[in-house]
């Protein structure tokens, strides 16, 4: 295994890998395509709690935050992801195995993600409380990206030069 330098440890989560390290969690293109196919199938056939929660998470209804559903992150498919806050929301039902969930959560946390788990029953019986808990987690989580690049530039670079050229004629 390659030792990490202080620069590696300080790099931002959305920056490209240094010297080819960390690319694709070590997954082959075929495996990644397979995971994307599974995620697509899961989006088309959600469980009742996932469908109910997605109705509240979609269209930026919770604090203006955008979510994706059944999103592929490395070798995992997560139920819901807010990319800006690196927040993962998992709806737990009968299919979740506690031991594998712990290992999965640790791997995702090492990559900078925050995970909250919500029981199926809570989604079905107390959707308002679930949404409040998610909003609280979003408010506590720092933005994943420090600041977006303004487009267009606030100084108006480019436009000013074009206007100068046209006014000379």
From TrEMBL:
Domain DUF559: 35-138
Coiled coil regions in record: none
InterPro entries in alphabetical order: DUF559 (IPR007569), Endonuclease_DUF559_bact (IPR047216), Restrct_endonuc-II-like (IPR011335)
Swiss-Prot/TrEMBL keywords: Endonuclease, Hydrolase, Nuclease
Entry's Gene Ontology molecular function annotations: endonuclease activity
Gene3D superfamilies in UniProt: VSR Endonuclease (3.40.960.10)
SUPFAM superfamilies per the UniProt record, alphabetical: Restriction endonuclease-like
Keyword match Cytoplasm: no
Top-level taxon: Bacteria
The keyword Cytoplasm is assigned to this record: no
Region (Disordered): 1-27, 143-169
Entry protein name: Endonuclease domain-containing protein
Organism name: Sphingobium yanoikuyae
